[in-house]
Structures
1.
Amino acid sequence: MTDPVHPMATSPAVPAPAVSEAAGHPVPVTDPAPVTASATEADTAPAADPTTAAEVISSGRALLGIELGSTRIKAVLIDPAGTVLASGAHAWENRLIDGIWTYGLDEVVSGVQAAYAALAEDVRERHATELTALAGLGVSAMMHGYLAFDADGELLVPFRTWRNTTTGSASAMLSEAFGRNIPLRWSVSHLLHAVLEGEEHVARIAHLNTLAGHVHELLSGRRVLGIGDASGMFPIDAATHEYDERLLDAFAGLDAVREVPWDLRELLPRPLVAGEAAGTLTADGAALLDPTGALRPGAVMAPPEGDAGTGMVATNSVRPRTGNVSAGTSAFAMVVLESDLPTAREEIDLVATPAGDAVAMIHTNNCTGDLDQWLGLLGEAAALTGAQVDRDELFRLLFTAALDAPADADGLLVYNYLSGEHQTGVATGRPMVVRPEGVGLVLAPFLRAQLNGAFAALAAGMRVLLRDEGVVCDEMFAHGGIFTTRGVAQQVLADALGVPVAVAESAGEGGAWGMAVLAGHAVARAQGDGAALADHLAQRIFADLELTTLAPDSEGQAGYARWLDRYLAALPVERLAGELIV
Ligand SMILES: Nc1ncnc2c1ncn2[C@@H]1O[C@H](COP(=O)(O)OP(=O)(O)O)[C@@H](O)[C@H]1O
Ligand SMILES: O=C(CO)[C@@H](O)[C@@H](O)COP(=O)(O)O
């Protein structure tokens, strides 16, 4: 495992005050607006106290979190108590090129710059000051996938994202050799897939990374990875907080890798737990983030994390027995375990919190992508009448309309599979809407079926975790863009899982905010504060958090269960569609 390049400073460029002196606010996150480059939307968000906020920013005490999500790169600036000071975002989309879901690394850099520039503009507008220094920052991103580099740091093949489902043989071989589930999207599955396919570049691989790790390296010069993100490359040993040595040996013992000229240990970035030193923003890094040259180097950098880890932080779900759900392009539910699950079930992934504790995850490739396209279509139809509805308002109206339908959506089924769905064993994406004979197309049940479909694969996986494996979870804390409209997707999810679901004001922007909070923890650590992550969150960030919790509705839960039974029974139709519709 490598951690090369630049030496690391241990203190931020601008000294930050102790966390207890921070400019606090009663509720940590006061900005319910989507992160956006738009001045109009930023203006509508409740602002933090202008004097104090401007002072926090101009004195270099603010913390920056960046998250590269599947549809948006988000940047959030907070004070040490977690109050949102400013935000910015840049929209982007994965593309299917030569059968591979990918993003260009040039788009990664320009997208991060655009999100940062939008945030800096938001700072100017809201606080009439310039962002020139940060106490700390951190990068989070979609996890897993395949970023392979040669010895000169050149990318060897286009980024293969988590969404690709081409690694079946490799994933099966690894799951058998390791005696635990190694999902299709994990980096080691992609690596073995490239080996099994005899891909030319394999002999030239010098290191692997995740997207967050790659951006962190660009900003800090250090090749390290938060342990949560690392746990999606290769299994982690929860006791040592390192990659699992026994499984590294098992990998090296595979016939398929006998001939490769590297040892996997040398390819993987070094895992770090939250609070461990992960470098500082270099001069090159500052110039990359802010090409205007206004931003100074030196800020403490937190270990880069995956969006699962930042989701756990954003929902204060890092202690054993806590559960959380992240729902956007994909969806994943996670429960922090008291001990490793003695199971190799393919529905369940085992990952780690940013502090290194074991987590059971139910992941689905598809959640909101197809729903977005349907709602976009309805928006286009509305536009033909001359109506001008903004996207958030369109979502609010249509989500709310879904509440008028019965939970079983009158039997209307939606398979939202834009891409293959490993959770339900569907190889390739063929989005489908189907209904029984005699059932008409009516708006409310159609919309309810869309929301049911968004959570269907997740609900199927959670049946396995909660019912078959007996994992206990009293409440799920949810975040992600689908919860931006209050109370609708939240109720559908509670009905789908049969568990109360809580959301906070920050629900729509959880990941970037969670990463900024991790940066605050890293700064506190760099200043000699030894608080463990869970205590930092409980005492300094979440003490006053206001949550809204919705319990499953008995009719809603029974209706969703009926709907899901029909959905699962008809899955062979969806699989067949993949074979027949080419
Ligand atoms: N106002 C809204 N109401 C409900 N859902 C919304 C709203 N705005 C966005 N969304 C949903 O949020 C999703 C994006 O969620 P996000 O967590 O940002 O995902 P990702 O990280 O995958 O880009 C969109 O695909 C959309 O379905
Ligand atoms: O695979 C995982 C988590 O295991 C995610 O990183 C991946 O689904 C991408 O998530 P987003 O939908 O971009 O939030």
Note: Confidence is low (pLDDT under 50) at residues 1-47.
2.
Amino acid sequence: MAETNKAVVEVFEGEDLAVSLAKYVADLSNKFTSERGAFTVCLSGGSMIDNLRKLPEYLDSIEWSKWQVFWLDERVVPKTHEDSNYKLALDGFLCKVPIPPGNVYAINDTLSAEEAADDYERRIRELVDKNLITLSPSSGFPKFDLMLLGMGPDGHVASLFPGHPLVQENKRWVTFIKDSPKPPPERITFTFPVINASAYAALVVTGKKEADAIHSALGKSENPVKLPVALVSPEGELKWFLDKDAASKL
Ligand SMILES: O=C1O[C@H](COP(=O)(O)O)[C@@H](O)[C@H](O)[C@H]1O
């Protein structure tokens, strides 16, 4: 296990990554549900959901009714569409655990990308007013308990892509993209100030195709390029869960 500034980097073999990630999430769930009676968790799409496969083994020890589930990013497609991050999470994780449906905040899939981003931000503001989500005292952005982030081979996180102006967005909580380099083109996404206001963030990265971006973010590069993944810097703790392939160039 290695430590950077505020970050812990751990490299796993085989099933150990999924086992360790499940324990990490379960421990944080117990901490937040006992401390404040709620646990606000933000999911990514992609390989993250498969990496959560061991979490349902905590069926009886997690207070699932206290979970409040959000998405770091979502594709602007119907909830039943193969590209929907909601559908991926529902089929791969949410259908296996008893989180009340009213605590699962999917985007409104009847709206345009602009409208869906506005609507998601408005709903989060309502939950701030109800004290279900707190605000970061230092930045004023919503402070979720846990962000579960994946990373694409190009170093994108959520729907914040390298070189795209959205990476710099510093006013909105939720914004939209209509020219995503990875299909589908229309998405909504949390902005970096929201990601970085979080109390805990896990960056879960697996696979050989991700090794260059991981090297760029965590290795000793002579010409460091700041990929979006390298901008993840939560107020709280950041933990990297890497498999051997993703870490192979470190
Ligand atoms: O498009 C997306 O990609 C990233 C990374 O996905 P992965 O399959 O390479 O793990 C994901 O984190 C994001 O939520 C998703 O919309």
Note: The chain has one domain: 8-243.
